[in-house]
Amino acid sequence: MKNMFCYQCEQTVKGTGCTVSGICGKKPDTAKEQDVLTCEMITLASVMQKSGQDDTDVVDGIVDGLFMTVTNVNFDAESIARLSSQIHQKWKKGAEKPAIKPDELFQGDENFVSLRSTLLEAANTGANGNPFPTKVPLTIE
Fold it and tell me: pTM, whole model, 2 decimals?
């Protein structure tokens, strides 16, 4: 994969998104898998909301997915793809098609794109708290 669009973090080039490779070191295949995972989570959340079910296993899977995507710390495309597949298996019983496709995630009306980004960030901070700077020692002990 040669092209990418990543609007995942505050490091994005000029605040508009990385398009060749991530400023953070993320490669295009990883960005694609994170977008697929995000769409799988959106679809699963939609299915669960419509069914009125509250399944701890599903919530845990979505929290794991949010950690893999929103925190921008997991660049292992294979592990991201495995979680996407697991989440896909959970929603396919309750939906015929995905709620949103990866190529639509950051496209369209800017208000919807902004809302999607805000909701994903709110879901992550709601589950994991707000990130804060941590002083890291630079000496070897």
Answer: 0.70
